[in-house]
Amino acid sequence: MDATIPAAVDPQLHAIVDDLDAASRRLQTLGAGVLCDVWDRRPAAGQWSPAECIEHLNLTSRALIPMLHQALEDARRVAPRTLSPYRRDVMGWLVWTVLAPSSGLKTKTIPAFVPEATPPAECLMAEFERLQAAVVACVRAADGLPIDRVKLESPFDARVKYNLYSVLTLVPRHQHRHLLQAQRAARAVEQVAAASALAV
Questions:
Q1: Where are the domains of the chain?
Q2: Ramachandran class of 46: left when φ > 0, alpha when ψ lies in -120 to 50, beta otherwise
Q3: % of the chain beyond a pLDDT of 70
Q4: Which residues of the chain carry a pLDDT beneath 70?
Q5: What is the 3-state secondary structure (H, E, C) of the chain?
Q6: pLDDT one-digit tens code per residue, 21-45
Q7: Is the dihedral of CA 150, 153, 154, 155 positive or negative?
Q8: Are 163 and 94 in contact (CB under 8 A)?
Q9: Which are the contacts of 173, defined by CB distance < 8 A and separation ≥ 6?
């Protein structure tokens, strides 16, 4: 991340930045360990390739960043923040639970966030980092604002609304979920390739 941007002062926001940084490192590790011909291969019909998992995250960030900017503007117009800790609302907590990387719950992605094509791996990762820096800037800009008293719509379902603090915590949660999916997809493709090589 850009070292010239000051770290978030609030410990809850600092934890979000740390989690976003962990997601970036996780992608870097994935990129260093996956062969080029594995990125675009699906482990099975109906499952995403590693590249599709990352492109889904990029599509999500592109849609979400303008919404975060608007929500931050809204937060600047409401009453100043109290000294109490930020809290997720009920919907934010529910989505947080569903998005746990280790949970077995599966969710269906709407067409707008289903990758139609994927660029080369290096371009995917560079775009992820560019968007990640923008998300981190939004988290840091939230310092001192009453972000748990401002709500915004989910980019996945306009019927679902949660507070801005919930959304900021959900971004790295969602990223880790799909980075784990990408890791598993790459491992599965590599195992199939290894088994095929042994069978020859």
A1: 11-31+44-195
A2: left
A3: 92
A4: 1-8, 104, 193-200
A5: CCCCCCCCCCHHHHHHHHHHHHHHHHHHHHHHHCCHHHHCCCCCCCCCCHHHHHHHHHHHHHHHHHHHHHHHHHHHCCCCCCCCCCCCCHHHHHHHHHCCCCCCCCCCCCHHHCCCCCCCHHHHHHHHHHHHHHHHHHHHHCCCCCHHHCEEECCCCCCCEEEHHHHHHHHHHHHHHHHHHHHHHHHHHHHHHHHHHHHC
A6: 999 999 999 999 888 788 999 999 8
A7: negative
A8: no
A9: 19, 96, 99, 100, 101
pTM (two decimals) = 0.90
At the topology level of CATH, where does 11-31+44-195 sit?
Four Helix Bundle (Hemerythrin (Met), subunit A) (1.20.120)
Provide the token pair at 75.
């937060």
